[in-house]
Design brief:
Blueprint (H helix, E strand, L loop, with lengths): L1 H24 L9 H29 L4 E7 L2 E8 L18 E2 L5 H13 L23 H5 L8 H8 L9 H11 L16 H14 L3 H10 L8 E2 L19 E4 L2 E4 L14 E3 L1 H12 L6 H4 L14 E3 L4 E3 L2 E11 L2 E8 L4 E7 L7 H8 L16
Antiparallel strand pairs: 1-2, 1-12, 3-7, 4-7, 5-6, 8-9, 9-10, 10-11, 11-12
Length: 397
């Protein structure tokens, strides 16, 4: 028994001495902590923290009337997506919204119209400083260029006011071609001179859709599908077209209906004769499709960086209320790292933000006119307490 104990003690001493000398002379053989695994765990913790923050912010907004879908991504990581509320608030048996539901983008459609124009510029089919008359000879205003339209510096009158006055049959769709014909016939006084400064006006992007058609020889909705939606994998995105409609249907043939919200409650928004005008609005998309588009911009999928970055340059030398406009994107001195757009039209509201400095992307699509408080959104997007590590190459601006 004593001999066995002696051998055990000797064995333990030998092991201890081996570990001691190995630790001093053979340290390369000692297992080390995998720093990469800790880095991944930390990344997951950061994502979890930002996810929790997002859920708190947007759940609170939903309790205060937001009815829609949200997606947030940071540094190439999809951090948060969630649907809140219902597709049709007028039904007793309500269907819940889903992540893949398509909403009207309203004015957020403009960034896609601008991209179509930029693609045609890259194709050599137009130049930004070409006069609109080169593509639309019946256009009655001199000196207005494509660049003026892109940057809202044309000084043109509002088309909705013109249509309200001169289009008496509201059961008949008012189209882009009807708009051009009415301009040629009535030629209302412009609000300003071409290049006179930034003045946001939907007519600019309605005319750009017509320029796309004239320069490409395709219907606007076909060009958008073939050159933007399909290359970007935006399988749920489309342009709502009333091109072949002779009358305006009571409601748009969509699954997610817009709603005007009054004190008495939400009312399903009816279709409108102005919905026949494309380019300034009337594109439908999902938050995931918008995220795919954001990735396409990051990876220069549609245009080289040298051309794409023109969309994010101020179009006017004079900032109006510290705001300016690029090609389909708003910009603000208060948020110099972000390019964004808000949308509102006939029962829908939307918001898209690209913070390029921190690689943050936010899309909110709603089917009510309940206002999304911008201060809450900017507080969330501008949060700098969480920075996720680089996960994918980025070639954007």
């Amino acid at each position: 028994m004593k001999r066995r104990t002696f051998f055990v003690i000797v064995l333990l001493l030998a092991v201890g001495l081996t570990v001691f000398f190995c630790g001093r002379r053979c340290s390369h053989e000692v297992p080390v902590i995998n720093v990469d695994s800790l880095f991944i765990d930390m990344n997951k913790a950061m994502v979890a923290q930002r996810t929790q923050q997002a859920d708190k912010v947007f759940t609170n907004l939903s309790r205060n009337g937001m009815n829609g879908v949200v997606l947030y991504a940071e540094q190439g990581e999809l951090v948060y997506e969630r649907a809140f509320g219902w597709r049709d608030l007028s039904k007793r048996q309500k269907d819940s919204l889903r992540i893949d539901d398509a909403f009207q983008l309203s004015s957020d459609s403009k960034m896609f119209t601008a991209e179509a124009v930029m693609l045609l510029k890259a194709d050599g089919k137009l130049d930004y400083d070409d006069e609109v008359r080169k593509y639309i000879p019946e256009f009655p205003y001199e000196g207005v260029t494509i660049r003026h339209l892109l940057t809202h510096c044309s000084g043109l009158p509002r088309y909705d006011s013109m249509a309200d006055e001169f289009w008496p049959d509201r059961k008949k769709p008012f189209s882009n071609e009807a708009l051009i014909a009415m301009l040629a016939e009535k030629t209302p006084d412009p609000y300003g001179t071409p290049g006179g400064g930034y003045f946001y006006n939907n007519i600019n992007y309605a005319l750009l859709a017509s320029v796309v058609e004239r320069a490409s020889g395709q219907h606007f909705e076909d060009f958008m599908r073939e050159r933007i939606f399909e290359p970007c994998g935006m399988t749920h995105s489309y342009i709502y077209s009333m091109r072949d409609d002779t009358t305006v249907s009571l409601y748009m043939p969509v699954e997610v209906h817009g709603h005007d919200v009054y004190r008495s409650g939400p009312v399903k928004a009816q279709n409108d004769y102005l919905n026949g005008v494309m380019g300034d609005k009337i594109m439908f998309s999902t938050v995931e499709d918008l995220y795919r588009y954001n990735q396409a911009l990051d990876q220069a999928l549609l245009l080289p960086d040298s051309l794409q970055r023109e969309a994010f340059m101020p179009g006017s030398p004079n900032w109006k209320n510290d705001e300016n406009y690029g090609f389909g994107w708003r910009m603000s001195k208060e948020h110099p790292d972000a390019y964004f757009h808000f949308g509102w039209w006939k029962g829908y509201r939307s918001l898209i933000v690209r913070d390029v400095a921190h690689r943050r992307f936010l899309a909110i699509l709603t089917n009510t006119t309940v206002l999304i408080p911008s201060e809450v959104i900017w507080d969330f997007v501008s949060d700098t307490t969480v920075m996720l590590p680089e996960s994918t190459p980025w070639t954007g601006e």
